[in-house]
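Input record (one chain):
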Amino acid sequence: MDLSASATPATQQDEPYFKTQEARVPPLYAPLSARRRLAWHFLAGASVASGTSYLIWRWTVSLNPDALGFSVLVAGAETLFFLGTLLFYFDIWDEGDTANSSPPVRRAEIGGGEGPSNITVDVFITTFDELPAVVAPSIADALALEPLEDLRVLVWLLDDGDRPEMAALARKFGIGYCARQDNIGFKAGNLRNGLFHTSGDFVVICDADTRLFPTFLQNTLGYFRDPDVAWVQTPHWFYDIPEGKSWEAWLKQSRLCVGRSDWRERGAQVLAWLTGRTCIGKDPFLADPTIFFDVIQRRRNRNGASFCCGAASVHRREAIFAAAIRRKTQQVLRPAHGISLPAQQSLAAHPIEPYRFHVSEDLYTSILLHEDQERTWRSVYHPQVEARMLSPVSLEAWAAQRLKYAGGTFDIALRDNPLFRRGLSWRQRLHYGATFWSYMSALWAPVLLLAPAFSLVTGITPVTAYSLEFFAYFLPAVVLGEVAMLAACKGHSIGAGRTLSVAGLPIVWHALVCVLRGHKPKFAPTPKLPVLGKGMRFVVPHIFLLVGMMLCGAIGIWRTLQGDAGFSASLLWVNLFWLGVNMVMVAGLLRTVFWQMPTPKSAHTNPDPLEETDAARSSFA
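The corresponding structure, as predicted from the sequence alone:
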């Protein structure tokens, strides 16, 4: 499966766009308060009770006997979504942050005995095709890490593109450089190559655009005083996401809502409710990962199930190699037709993979370490931002990233599902199951997406009638579920995630089809700079779907006015409402087609990335 973006990266003749965002300060993620936790748990219980009541009524009373197939299909989709809700509620039920300690500097403090007494940390900056303008600030910030007494830090540039300009960049900064001529194993192979050329006790993984804060090591190494901790993951923070403009300011500027200021305020509230977004132009590519990191990852930590997300994570070398060697030994010594292969010959023919050779090497390796029964390795999620990164800034970058995530997850779920292997605790299985279920929901999401359009065209409803009894069961389930999510997510916006789940359906379906056809997912690094390409091709399915939905709505209105059999005012208004909600989510990406990154005011020609080194080093000092 080719996950590469077809666009051409923009040249570096202008100053990189992210230079204008250098002064942004990361958020501080507060823990879940006792009052909010109580409200969330109460509302979750009420939501589960009302949802269960609705589904019992749905299956026993409301199925439409005149359209049983359609009615069962919709009820089945509703049931599957409810099961996903139960998994998600378990996933995010409560926080359980790991207590931190002062950073160790002696190997004896981390359970090590042999070798030099002082700890060594290797910082890996991985790159494939990124420009020096992106990589240079990452190197500068890695070199600016605040030193710890007697702790040795070595920075390495791992160049999977084997490019002369990267070798020159490493020489100018005076850091280590590792390159290779092939790309076997994608990023995991690149990391493997780096591991075989280094010997640090810990490895910090950075993408080409990962810019570590000076206190990164001070705030993460303390967890490794526990000898069972294999890795520590920190949140991803995209500091370049456009902040947008408030709806009220937009209404005032566009003069679409003239008159008193309270009218604009009410209009802004309506627009925020309809779109699920507080601003226009904010985060156009729905890249903000706050919900995933501060809600999902942080709460999985209570059961030791937060998985590695690659960049901005630090790993114990012993754990990575010990698990890989044990896994490879078990594979090659497994008897084939009653005859065991010679160990030395088999191990030579099957080199170990410290990070599993896979497009989702971070998720895959996390599973393999979590299920290691001979060594109880633990993961830790550190809840505060310790690095800044670049977000997808084009439809090409967005599509490449989403396709990679979906393809890798489907490949693991369908070909090597950890839920059916020994090692994971039942809690960890449920957490990983929630990840797989969220992608599998693409199979039944189209049913609920298209059901209103079908009813508006045919006059066939999935329930016996849109009666008061229907609303008495349906509305509490919907409203309580919505309010429960608002309480669970600590004030973070939940609208963008829902829009992404619908707008990304074509990408997810493409990934699933490719995996089912036996195509192995291929790794394509997400472009780190704006790209010049045909972004329109990624929203063609959305445009066709929106046009079809509008036609279905018009047909429903016409047939209702004509008094056709089966059509009624209740059928019309209920399905028009849900059709409109679905259309808003489908249209979530259309505005990005003509979106352009604002041009920096101080652009100049052919910047030397090394000229900005001092400023980059002091940005977060």
